[in-house]
Amino acid sequence: MKIHYFSGEAWEEAYVKAKLPDEEITFHEGSLAAFPELTDPDADVLCTFIESKIGEEELSTGYDHIDLNTAKARGIAVVNVPFYGENTVAEFTFALLLALSRRVIDADERVRDGAFSPSGLRGFDLAGKTIGVVGCGHIGVHAIRMANGFGMKVLGFDVTRNDDLAKTLNFTYATLPELLAASDIVTLHVPYNAHTHHLINKENIGSFKKGAYLINTSRGAVVETDALVEALKSGTLAGAALDVLEEEGDMNDEAALLTAPHPNAEAIRTALENHYLIEHPRVIVTPHLAFNTTEAVERILNTTIENIKSFGAGSPTNIVS
Fold first, then answer.
1. Which of 65, 207, 209, 276 lies 20 to 30 A from 229 at CA?
2. 23, 86, 248, 273: the active-site residue
3. pTM of the entire structure?
């Protein structure tokens, strides 16, 4: 098979070639967008990561970046890597939560500044607290298990209920309003789609338990930035930990955003509000890092390689279109 592989990390070339020694693979450093002149009508496989947009024009020459309708119309099979970081993201969720609860970043910065005093750095226990897990799928289930290990009371919200799972993992299903009102910590583990866009918003953020904390390792637009900022200012939320930000893509080039001929006012406001979040003393922001471990990346590559092998054998797996 003739394969075009777009990668941001040089080591992947040797890794993939060792797993697919008989295939003709061309490696490109960076996303597909970096190669606007590239055409290859003989290519069998286009292997991309999420930063590559695949639309009608590209097909002519964590899958929402691919125009599935166009792919289907052209008879192109689209496959993905459905599971690779369930425990990985859940572990990072608790890394963020512990950093908040025990003031780890504040303490580290103090010591780096030359002070060695615990004054003003008192935290809080997780044991006995109520954690609300929004989205009880593969990642959410791992988060629930970890919460049980800390001795927390767990509430879960999901569009589908699995009462056997709730019994096995010792958690209680609740409606979203019930969960927000009762939880000391709310952690989000839902996919991003039309139903979860601004799932946490101006209308419901006021129903959070006073002084609660919000953890988001899912997608930025699951949380309405305006609402989050107001909740922090009012004290409804005592703090937050965010691995994702709404409009985080625009944060990479704010000069272009602010000086574009027809600027998007909503995007500009969101970018400015993101700065408020970044500078807030009780908010931790990380650069979309939750999935990023050696093991998770290798699982992504291994599943990708198996997808390619299955496609070559005429039996594609993990098909989304």
1. 65
2. 248
3. 0.83
